[in-house]
Amino acid sequence: QVQFVESGGGLVQPGGSVRLSCAASGSIFSIYTMGWYRQAPGKQREFVASITSSRATNYADSVKGRFTISRDNAKKTVYLQMNSLKPEDTAVYYCNRTPLENWGKGTLVTVSS
Question: What is the mean pLDDT of residues 11-30?
Answer without folding.
Answer: 94
